[in-house]
Design a protein that fits this description.
Layout lengths: L5 H11 L1 H10 L7 E4 L22 E3 L7 H4 L3 E3 L6 H5 L7 E4 L6 H10 L4 E5 L5 H11 L5 E4 L3 H7 L4 E7 L13 H5 L2 H21 E11 L8 H11 L2 E2 L11 E2 L14 E3 L9 E7 L10 H11 L6 H11 L11 H4 L1 E3 L2 E4 L12 E4 L1 E7 L2 E4 L1 H7 L7 E4 L2 H9 L3 E2 L6 E7 L2 E8 L4 E4 L12
Parallel strand pairs: 4-5, 4-7, 5-6, 7-8, 18-20
Antiparallel strand pairs: 1-2, 1-3, 6-15, 8-12, 9-12, 10-11, 11-12, 13-14, 14-16, 16-17, 19-22, 20-21, 21-22
GO molecular function: RNA binding; RNA methyltransferase activity; S-adenosylmethionine-dependent methyltransferase activity
InterPro entries: Methyltr_RsmF_N, MeTrfase_RsmB-F_NOP2_cat, MeTrfase_RsmB-F_NOP2_dom, Nol1_Nop2_Fmu_2, Nop2p, RCMT, RsmB/NOL1/NOP2-like_CS, RsmF_methylt_CI
Keywords: Cytoplasm, Methyltransferase, RNA-binding, S-adenosyl-L-methionine, Transferase
């Protein structure tokens, strides 16, 4: 049973009334609901998990538990995510070709959903201020096979200098007091206090001040938290409306009666009932709040001729040589390429021997700490090219022939440990490696039929004693 602070309980008894508050407290003592999303970008996405209970309104989302060792996870075919947390990215209604920013992105659940909606067109900037958490963000975006993401490790001030009035849509899943995660993460209770709620509100306003600078006129801000606190939800939305003349948008994509709405009496502007609230007693998932706000004006084409010229001159120095293209083609020509990387010979660049197709080419990115730019194809070595893990996950989007489908659970686990595996095949050289037909790595087959392991060391699973 959760040991909820007295001040917390008193607060919500006053806000909700005793009966509704007791329902909330009781629900917070129930077991958390787990769910997962299936990746529609992958060619083979016939997962082994139970799909009998769908998450309301979210396509390809089901209740159930995922293991990090399963081929579904390792191949980027599924993403384990709290069901309530799926909604902010879904209501963003991202369209292919848009420029989208996920400002507080780690560990990547919302970024993977935004990226898949872009379908390889447009741009996703996925930013995480924490240097430790950005590693997981990169791993998850790579696993999902997203090729048009710029992953950055910056604060909102640095981003606003580089991307003024740049984005069609910005998702801010703001750092918050975490009240909605108490039952999933009881440690969050220890940090809670009325003073901490106020600290979070101040931090949210600081982040949002920079976020609105990056929205195009007519652009949309999706604001979300995982807290119940009106100070961080309805009051923040009211602050945005008053200070930036933003309009709260109706959310028409939600039909489930498990989703509640914002409380107008907890804010100070009209239309707060258009915002969404997710309560544990609604039995959908953890606590969540979400709203869509539109900037004044209409979306139009920004003038970026100056930045294009500056960036073109600089990036010419990163172009591939004729010989380098031949080394790369010798490997890539063996595989079917998704359309977004089929023109790699025109777009690929090389930096410190790392070959990549940049997610963005018309913008001067000076001043940003870039973790990954677009799709990393692999590494150039002495007169040869070694394909990378990100490429393997992206190639899983289309049907492939040069694939070794491991024949047993034992071989699969051995490969995840970093071991070589003996295979019976006529294939030689670089191949894609799959289990249950789900592609998750590159390998290389020598003349003796041994599959050399190219699964990244940082992702390998240690053997149990």
């Amino acid at each position: 049973m959760l040991n909820l602070p007295i001040e917390f309980k008193d607060k919500y008894q006053k806000l909700l009334g005793n009966d509704e508050a007791e329902k909330m407290f009781s629900a917070m003592d129930q077991e958390s609901k787990k769910a997962y999303r299936i990746n529609p970008l992958k060619f083979e996405n016939n997962v082994s998990y139970d799909k009998t209970e769908e998450v309301p309104d979210i396509p390809n989302a089901f209740y159930g538990e995922v293991s990090g060792q399963d081929p579904e996870w390792v191949s980027g075919t599924v993403y384990s995510q709290d069901p309530s947390a799926m909604f902010p990215a879904w209501i963003a209604n991202v369209q292919a070709g848009e420029k989208v920013l996920d400002l507080c992105a780690a560990p990547g659940g919302k970024s993977t959903a935004l990226g898949q909606a872009l379908k390889g067109e447009g741009l996703l900037v996925a930013n995480e201020i924490s240097a430790s958490r950005v590693k997981a963000l990169r791993e998850n975006i790579e696993r999902w096979g997203i090729s048009n993401a710029l992953i950055t490790n910056n604060d909102s001030f640095a981003l606003a200098k580089v991307f003024p009035q740049f984005f069609d849509k910005i998702l801010v899943d703001a750092p918050c007091s975490g009240e909605g995660m108490f039952r999933k993460n009881p440690e969050a209770i220890e940090y809670w206090s009325p003073e901490y709620v106020q600290t979070c509100q101040d931090r949210q306003q600081e982040i949002l001040e920079q976020a609105v600078k990056m929205l195009k006129p007519g652009g949309k801000l999706i604001y979300s938290t995982c807290t119940f606190s009106p100070e961080e939800d309805e009051e923040i939305v009211s602050w945005l409306v008053k200070n930036y003349k933003m309009e709260i948008q109706p959310i028409t994509m939600i039909n489930s009666d498990k989703v509640s709405h914002g409380r107008p009496e907890w804010g100070s502007v009209d239309h707060l009932e258009r915002t969404l609230r997710f309560w544990p007693q609604d039995n959908l998932g953890e606590g969540q709040f979400a709203a869509i706000l539109k900037m004044p004006g209409e979306l139009g084409k920004e003038n970026s001729k100056k930045s294009k010229k500056k960036k073109k001159d600089k990036r010419n120095n990163l172009s591939l040589t004729k010989d380098e293209k031949e080394y790369i083609a010798k490997v890539l020509d063996k595989f079917n390429l998704p359309k977004e990387i089929s023109d790699w010979q025109k777009r690929a660049l090389v930096r410190k021997d790392h070959v990549f197709i940049p997610a963005i080419s018309e913008q001067n990115l000076k001043g940003l700490n870039i973790v990954n730019d677009g799709l990393e194809l692999g590494i150039l070595k002495k007169k040869r090219f070694e394909p990378g893990h990100h490429l393997a996950e992206a190639l899983g989007q289309v049907e492939q022939k040069n694939v070794i489908n491991l024949s047993s659970e034992e071989d699969y686990m051995s490969y995840l440990h970093g071991e070589t595996v003996k295979v019976d095949t006529d294939l030689r050289g670089f191949v894609l490696v799959a289990f249950n037909k789900m592609i998750f790595s590159f390998g290389k087959i020598a003349g003796n039929g041994v599959l050399k392991n190219f699964y990244p060391k940082g992702l390998r699973i240690l053997k149990k004693d």
